[in-house]
Each structure stands twice: as C-alpha cells, then as structure tokens.
Task: structure prediction
Amino acid sequence: MRFIYFTLLFIITASCGKSKSEPTKPIDPIKGGPVIKVMTYNIHIGNPPSEVASARNLQAIANVINLQKPDLVALQEVDVNTTRSGKDVDQAKELARLTGMYYFYTKAIDYQGGQFGDAVLSRLPIIESKRYELSVTPELGGELRSVAMIVVEKEGIRFNFASTHLDHLSSDANRDHQAKELINHIKVLDKPLIIAGDLNAQPTSNAIKILQQQLTYACSSNCPFTFPSVNANRTIDYIMLNKPEKFTVKDYRIVNETYASDHLPVVATIELKK
Result:
C-alpha cells in the first residue's frame, strides 16, 4: 500500500509541476496598418526669403526634409533649367539626390527657357506616375498649373500621392475653376489618395469648399498657419485625403523652419488601413 501511495503522490506531483512549467502562449496584439510620414513644402524655387532674389540654397531645403525623414514629399515652386535658377539645374532631380529619394516632376508652365512646376519625392519605389493639367479660363488669364501624381505601395497597400499648386496670380474664380478640374481628376481614381500642396486658398474660401466635395483635411480642423514662414498668419498649404476611411491620421503639424523658404513645411503621420 505504501508503494502505491508514494507512486500516486509522485504522479500527481509530476503532473502539477509540468502544468506549471509550460509557458503561457501570449495573445497576439492587434496589428495596425503600415504608417507613413508625409510632407508638403513650397520651396520658393530654393530662394531663402532673407537672401537676395538670385540666391539659391537647395541644401537648406534638403536639410529640412532630411531632418523630418518623410516617406513622401510634395514640392511646389520647383525650377528646372531656368535662367533664374540655372540653365543646368534641375531642382527636382537635385533634391532627390540630396535626400536619397525617388522623384517625379511635372511642368506647370514654361519659364525662362526651362520649366516651373511641381514634384514629388518618395522613399518608396514609384510604381506609376502621371501628370494632370489644371487650366485657366481665357477671360481670367493666370497661370496653368499641374498635378504630379504617383502610385506607391507599403506593406501590400497601394495608394496615390500627389502634389499641386493652385494659381495665385489671378482671381479667386480661376482657383475655383482649377479646383473643379482637380475634383474631376480625383473622383475617378480607383485607389486612395493623399494630395498635398500650396492651394493659395484659405479654409473659408470657395476653392476649398469645392475640393471638400471629394477631399477631407488631414488636419481635422483648425489647420495651422503656413504662410509666411515668419509670423505666419494664414493657412494655404494642406495635406488632404480622399477615401478618408482608408486612413487614420496620427499626427499633423507644421515645422517651424523659417530660413529655407517663405512657406512653413507641413508634416503628417498617417496609418494606412488594411
């Protein structure tokens, strides 16, 4: 009997010890979608506003970008082979080199033997790229504008990213016209879109109300002032989204950098929803 008793006691003890020593399998946390960092920056053709009009400092622009480490950058007021910025200077290409990013440039207008327009920089490989033109109405004049749009992918999610710059020379009506054209381009896109740029229109303007037919602010409300870079007093630079259900904005802010350009850069951290 004593043998049976001690045998049973050993089995019970061993069983209890085994169950205690087995590690508990951790519960997998719910993983969110990939996160990207987006910037928009009107670079003022690389001319620091405190310097003479002929001065160019693309390294200063690149330093601002490199410090923020964005995945995607929308650039406006970019010169390519113009007399004023250098007949052999492609500012989009040079900024891509200085930041180690891919790039895509689109012309808004011909200028001084070269071009003036918009560009995007991307740390992600560019899968597709396309230029859209934003026209002017003949009776209003003003400047043609462009949209530089690319398709990129992060962790299996493909989306559009674009840079644009609405006309600042003519009337509000011409910006309204360009906003309507932009909406027509956006509404047929099959992938989510993040679009950023200098819209030369404040939040209460009719042009912004037109864009809100298809786009929502990434800043939610009370978008920060972006111009001028010193003592900014108005919001004209934005990051906006279509298909907002595909994104979650984690952070939206300006960068208080006052030397390199007359506009403040805007940065947003955005989660892509699976």
